[in-house]
Amino acid sequence: MSQNLSFTLHVLTARLDRAADRLLRAEHNVSYRRFLALTLVKELGRPTQRALADTLGVTEPSVSRMAAVLAEDGLLDVQPDPAGGRRKLLSLTEEGHRLVTSVQRDFEKRFAKLVAHSGVPYEEYAEQTERLLATLDHLWTEKGTR
Q1: Which candidate, 11, 81, 68, 10, places its Cα nearest to that of 34?
Q2: Mean pLDDT for each 10-residue chunk of the chain (146 residues)?
Q3: Greatest CA separation found in the chain?
Q4: Buried b (16+ CB within 10 A) or exposed e, 92-108
Q5: What is residue 84's predicted lDDT score, i.e. its pLDDT?
Q6: Sign of the dihedral defined by the CA atoms of residues 107, 109, 115, 118, in that order
Q7: What stretches of the chain adopt beta strand conformation (E)?
Q8: What residues are paired with 78 via a beta bridge?
């Protein structure tokens, strides 16, 4: 049994991220970082570049560059905010939505197989992981450090 679960979780997450990046690049010609941005656009609805940058923990210019590439690839729609100013609203194109939906489904199947192969009950693992994430979110919200 690991005496450093926090480190072990970090290693697991890093390895899963690298595996996802390799698969996405090979099968869809998109990086995991860009796929994550597309996924968050789907989850957030129609966010501004600023909101996506805040959620990703990166700068707005970084998101602006990424959005331009994803728009050029036909995966993201970038429009001026009707409220005015320099704000841009982001939304998935039909192709972007298909990609996110398909990859999420594929990754979930692959992860479920990994969990099953490990002998860990999937439902139990999912429940415990969601509980930890909810607790972390609650603590961050409470302290205003999110």
Answers
A1: 68
A2: 83 96 96 97 96 95 96 97 88 98 97 95 95 91 68
A3: 56
A4: bbeebeebbeebeeebe
A5: 79
A6: negative
A7: 76-80, 88-92
A8: 90
| Bridge partners, 77 (sequence order) | 91
Count H helices, E strands: the chain? 6, 2
Strand partners, 80: 88
Residue 143: what pLDDT?
74
* Cα 43–chain centre separation: 9
Q: Which of 45, 40, 76, 71 is nearest to 58 (CA)?
A: 40
Please state, in angstroms and rounded to a whole number, the distance separating the CA atoms of residues 26 and 122: 27
Which amino acid is residue 42, in one-letter code? K
Structure pTM? 0.86
The token pair at 115 is 């969990």
